[in-house]
Amino acid sequence: MSIPLTISIGNKEYNVIGEDERLIRKAADILNDKISDFSVKNPASESVPILTKTTIAALNIIEEALHNKVESDVLASEIVSEIYKITDYIETNINNPHYS
Fold first, then answer.
1. Alpha-carbon distance 46 to 21, whole Å?
2. How many angstroms separate the CA atoms of 6 and 24, rounded?
3. Could you give the CA distance from residue 97 to residue 91 in angstroms, rounded to a whole number?
4. Which of 17, 26, 31, 86 is deepest in the core (most CB within 10 A)?
5. CB 57 within 8 A of CB 35
6. Taking a C-beta distance cutoff of 8 angstroms, is the pair 31, 59 a contact?
7. Residue 100 in this model has a pLDDT that exceeds 70
8. H helices within 7-49, ranges in order?
């Protein structure tokens, strides 16, 4: 069920509709944190328009998400590989009298 929400991004209020209020508010918090990080790291950022700050923050968030996805895929592949090795070992040695 879609629910209407008011969230704040970059000190501006937005009316949005979404499925999960908690996730939407968390997403807004993450975006605000990135905007804040940009402002802290760039002392001259007072003159940078909020749209530019928000775009850069969104780009940083997406880059992190893609990096995490790649890492997750690599780890999942390594886990599957280890499971196959364990399975092969068990199948090879299940009838071995030394392991009974």
1. 31
2. 10
3. 13
4. 31
5. yes
6. no
7. no
8. 21-41
